[in-house]
Structures are given as structure tokens and as C-alpha cells.
Amino acid sequence: MTDDRAQCGSLSPYLEKLGEHLDRYLCFEYPDAMQNAASWHSALDIPLPSAGAGIDQVLEEICSVLLPNASRIPDPGCTSFITTGATTVGVLANLAGAVASPQRIGLTAFNFLEELSLQWLSDLFSLHRDMQGIYTSGGSVANIVGLGAARQWAFEQLAMDPAEDGVQRPGRIYATRSSHRTIHRAAAVLGLGRSAVTTVAEDGSGRMCPEALERLLATDIGTHIVPVAVVANAGTTSTGAIDPLHDLGQIARAHRTWFHIDGAYGLPGILDPLVQPLYRGLELADSVTVDPHKWLGAPVGIGATFVRDRSILHRAFTQGESDYLEGSLSQDDIQHSMDSLGIPYGNFALELSAPARGAVVWALIREIGREGIKERVCRHNAMARRIADRARAHPELEVVREPTLSICCFRYVSGDCRDLNELNRKIHRRLVHSNENIPSTATVDGILAIRPCFVGARTTADYADALVDEVIKTGREILGKPVGGAGQ
Ligand SMILES: Cc1ncc(COP(=O)(O)O)c(C=O)c1O
């Protein structure tokens, strides 16, 4: 197939077929991809084709080779990463944007939703009313954007412009060891260096100690070192702990240091009345991140950063003037969607070309509203607490870290086992291989825990129970004990 125009044919017949096969995938009845690795390897691993196979053949291969051998992550029993399967409406909006809004710029309805949905997110999570957002590809880049703003602000206080002239004095970022490693990468990318991230002590619940932060800041202030940002977590990746935001924010303010909150995973937790008080201090943040592609169920590729005033993002990230862009626009005669780029998102972060992520977030919120998202968050948090309750009540289980949000770290225990970390590692591997309940593990104070994280819209309390039952059964099997009834 060499006809170029064949690539631009009607979508609907193909979408119908694709939809049927995606629905089949979403039954999660295919065996794991590794079971058939030889077969799909040989089907896919061909040399660069000289002539095209045509769209029908490509679609056939998507349906018969890719989808039956795809990811476990959207499966409601898969609770290992804080990534999940996209919900249906997000897929539809994503597809609509891919076809009809290849850029987020221009005075279109898609562009309008970019800003509206950022405002909705800010309202949904009760951010300070001045907060303005920018979408990125996910939490990694969202942290770079937030810390890029922090770097700009910190050095501007010293009459320096790090975006223009580079970083001319050592900077420091204050974070706990539970902070996501993307904070370190952000420090590297921003020219501060990974070693600029100073570890602040945690309390027994994995939360930053305000006194330790106070001591470190007091030591650095007035030296050659530039305090760039205090990084607090609204939901750590391993355990879901929420740092004492109010105390930390006040300390950061007292020392005139930027206060960044990484809420990539946990910001939606504010919707759960049981944990909402832990978010006191959110209003003190200078920057906040949240990932719609985590708890909100967006297709992967959507994170967001909020700052109080996007002009700092402009100073930190603008690509500067470019004749080919500005020259194509109208200054005063706005009559056409191509007369203006609209809000210059391309100058607020790292991407110029970017998909219309706002339409996806708009669709997710429009479909189920604040109440629907709140119901999901509360359901998932209750599932983590249910696991903790069952673990406390069972002689062969132990809660390793009390859940705050939708993560519960627990483990199988047995008095006659000398190496419980090894035992739980084995249990975890068997769980993965049995392909029904797939949590991750996390090491908490040297203890290897089984770590389910419930964020998938498709998962329900039955999956929490099934996981606990399987952990008990597997632990007994490994130790050669009688397996007994489920959960006994
Ligand atoms: C707290 C936190 N921050 C940042 C990230 C990085 O997000 P992403 O994988 O979307 O880049 C994660 C990922 O799990 C996270 O949990």
C-alpha cells in the first residue's frame, strides 16, 4: 500500500472494530503478555517494511496481536503503580483532541477548556484562589515546572536571573527521603544538581519533621547557599503519608523560602472528609502539583502544576521571541481562531507542541462531577483501611504503616520464619505470577511490605479482600502450612 491518501480515510468503521476489541481487552481475560511472548515477538519483529501493509492490516494487528498482549495496569486487581487505566470518557476526549486539536493553542473550544479545566481542578482541590495552572506530561515534569518557578524566584530575590544566566550560586532543596525521586531529577535538570536535595528527617509515620526543617533552613540562611524550595508531600508514593503542610508552610514562609507541594498522587485525597483536615496549609503553597492521570483516571500523559502567578513561569521557561510564531498572528484584529495563540502555554513550561489535555480533564470532571470523584477517592481510601483492619485482626498479618490515603502497607508474618522480608518478597512474586492481585512492595523502615495502591476507577472492595485472602494463602503455601479457608 503506497497511496498516501489512504491514511486519511473515514474513522468510524475502524473505530467500531477497535472499540469491540478494546472492550474485549477490558474484560481482562487474556493471559499475561509473557505467556505468549514468542508468538507476538515473531509477529511484530519484522524488518523495516518497504511497502506499507495498509490500514486494515495494521488495525488487524492491533486487535489480534497488541491488545491480547497488553498491559496489566488497567486491570482492577493491579494495584502496583499509581498509574491506572483510563476511564472511557477520558479515552473519548483524548481521541477527539488527537484528531481535532493537534495543538492546545488557537482560539478554539479545546483551547478554552485548557484554562477552564485548570480552574476546575483548582476549585476541586480547594487551591488558593490566585492559583494558575499549566498542564504537563505528568508528575515528573510537573515537579520540574514547580521547582523551576522556585529556582527563578529564589535567585531573583538576589537580583539574579537563573533562566537567563544560569545558576551562579549553590541552591538547596529540602525534602524527605520519602519524596519522589523526580525531585532529585528536577534538581539535576534545573542545574542545581541532585546533591542540592537535602534530606530532612521524618517522624515515625514518614512525615517531614518541622523542627528538622527549621534547623536546616536556619543553618543555611545567610550563607552562600541559596534555599530554593521546601518540598512537602500530599501523599507519598510508598505509603501515602501527608506531611504537616501547615507547619512546614509557615516555616518556609518565615524563612522566605518557596513552598512546593507534590500532590501528584494524593491531592485528590482532600475530597475525603476523613482526611481533609490533613490538607490544612495547602493555601500556603507557592506551587502544587497533581496528576490527573493518576486518581482522576485520565489516559497517561497528564500532570498539572499550579503557581500563584504564571508570570514567574514565563520568566523561568519562556523560549523567547520567535519570528515564525509571533509573525503569524494578529495583534488587534481577532476574528479567526488562528489570529491568536490564546494563553501562551508554550512559554509556561517545557513543551511547545502539546496535546489538548484540558479537554480530557474537562470530560472527566464533567462526566461524574465533584461528587463522583469524591465517591471514588473515599471508596479507595476505605479499601486501604479495610486491609489494615483485616491485617490487625489476623494473627498472620501485620500492618506495616497505617494508611492515610488509598495505600496500605502490610505483610504476612509467622513466628517460625526468620527472614520475613524474604518471605514477603516471595509472596509478592507469586502474587504477580498468579496474575490476579498485583500489588507492589515498599520498604518501610527496613521492612518489606506488600503495598496495594487503589486508584483505578474499576477497582472495588472485593479486590481488597481478594488480595488479603491471597496473601494469607500464599504465605501458608510457601511455609508448608495447611491453607484452610479463604481469609481464615
Ligand atoms: C508523589 C509523586 N510525585 C511524582 C511522581 C511522578 O509522576 P509521573 O510518573 O507522572 O511522572 C509520582 C509517580 O508516582 C508520585 O507518586
Largest sheet: 7 strands, mixed
What is the assigned CATH homologous superfamily of the domain at 88-365?
Type I PLP-dependent aspartate aminotransferase-like (Major domain)
Please name the CATH architecture of the domain at 88-365.
Answer: 3-Layer(aba) Sandwich
Q: What share of the residues does DSSP label as strand, in percent?
A: 5-15%
Mean pLDDT: 95
The tally of beta strands, per DSSP, is 11
What is the highest CATH level, the class of the domain at 88-365? Answer: Alpha Beta
Global outline: globular
The tally of helices reads: 15
Radius of gyration over alpha carbons?
A: 24 Å
Hetero compounds: pyridoxal-5'-phosphate
CATH topology of the domain at 88-365: Aspartate Aminotransferase, domain 2
Keyphrases for this structure?
seven-stranded mixed beta sheet, Aspartate Aminotransferase, domain 2, binds pyridoxal-5'-phosphate, 11 strands, single chain, alpha/beta, 15 helices, 488 residues, two-stranded antiparallel ribbon
Layout of helices and strands, plus pairs?
Blueprint: H1 12-25, H2 37-44, H3 55-66, H4 88-100, H5 109-124, E1 132-136, H6 139-156, H7 162-165, E2 171-175, H8 182-189, E3 197-199, H9 210-220, E4 226-233, H10 245-254, E5 258-262, E6 287-290, E7 303-307, H11 310-317, H12 323-326, H13 357-393, E8 397-401, E9 409-412, H14 420-434, E10 440-444, E11 447-451, H15 461-479
Parallel strand pairs: 2-3, 2-4, 4-5, 5-6
Antiparallel strand pairs: 1-7, 6-7, 8-9, 10-11
Helix pairs in contact: 1-3, 4-13, 5-13, 6-8, 6-11, 9-10, 13-15, 14-15
The structure holds pyridoxal-5'-phosphate (PLP).
